[in-house]
Design goal:
mainly alpha; 2 helices; elongated
């Protein structure tokens, strides 16, 4: 019985992991990057459909900078 349920459990955990990672990347990093780009460029960027890579990169750099600042404070 254990041999049958173990692969099913791994599959379910992989799906949950994929959903969480996708959630973090899509909503948090791209969302932060979108807001930061809008603020820094006074609403000119990001353009719809053209700056997806930049949005992700700016979001990642922004989150990394916040963590570095928090570490330096503590």
């Amino acid at each position: 019985m254990e041999d049958v349920l173990e692969p099913l459990g791994r599959f379910i955990l992989r799906i949950i992991k994929w959903i969480l990672v996708e959630f973090i990347i899509e909503l948090i990093l791209k969302g932060i990057g979108h807001v930061v780009l809008k603020l820094l460029t006074f609403g000119k960027y990001p353009r719809a459909g053209k700056d997806e890579g930049r949005t992700f990169a700016v979001g990642f750099i922004s989150v990394a900078a916040v963590f570095v600042c928090l570490i330096m404070i503590a």
